[in-house]
User: What shape does this take?
Amino acid sequence: MREEAIKLAELGIRVIPIKPGQKYPPMPQWQDKASNDIQVVNDWWTGQYSGYGIGIATGQTKHGRIFVLDVDDREEYKGSDTLHDLQEKYGQLPETVTAIMRYIRFNRNKWYKWSKWCSWN
Assistant: This one.
């Protein structure tokens, strides 16, 4: 994980360790502690947080602003069905990098760069 975290940090994306098998950082105020400092990231994944997953702090990077669409499929509802219905109504989302996690349930994180097609209206 260390190498992947460093690659993200080199892209200007602030990363944070994530507890194994969970979706949460191990520290309070993680939004302020997320870092793209290569030394900090290296120290985390070679020290106290070795074996932890990688979380990202969305927002501004050196290449622009990013956001992540989290699509969870759970027993009580399927986010992929909701996403399908929304795309049928409003149009398809552009192709993008998608991270797939299979630990507690099926989960997809679709990464997007903020652009003119993003609108809240």
Observations:
- Helices lie at 2-10, 30-33, 38-46, 79-90.
- The mean pLDDT is 83.
- Residues 2-57 form a domain with the Signal recognition particle alu RNA binding heterodimer, srp9/1 fold (CATH 3.30.720).
- The two ends are 38 Å apart (CA to CA).
